[in-house]
Task: structure prediction
Amino acid sequence: MFHQLNSLTKASLFYLITFILAVLLAVFGQGLGQFITVVTMFTPLVAVLLMLLVVTRDGYTRIGWQALGLHGLGRQRWGLAVLGPLLVLSCTYAIVWSIGIGRPHWAALSERLAIAGLVSLLLNLIVDMILALGEEIGWRGYLLPHLLPLGRTRALLLSGFVHGLWHLPVMLLTPFYHESGNRLLVAALFVLSTTCGGV
Result:
């Protein structure tokens, strides 16, 4: 246990633990099949718990847990959280459809808007939010605040970049995640997108 670690050292140790867990899962967890991606999503949360309860013992105080940002609902940011991705997706679809790379499938959309489709969509949304929470507590709740001594912009870029790199073991060492296409190109684009998404 270390009591005098600075923020950047804590960030580095957190990332090292998270990345090692992802590599170990990719190498030894392939028997899980597609479920390996779900288990991997919780490695940042496991790393947070190890950092708070074993490495630093910050988790033995209320302040240690409050630093994760879980003490409020953040309702003032919900509008941006919903409208931001909708705006990005709308622009992306508009570009793809207008230049002919893709085309809308209105029949499939009408099926998704049926009651069964809406129930399925809602259930998927709830499950995906729970799974994403395992990642986000680590990346945005623990890592990002510890990177802030680098400056806000650098911290945002670096947290998004290392978040993308963390996906590489399961992408490159298993056949279960983004297995289509040129692996190196897909991996590079994925890291670029998570870097931008981190901001």
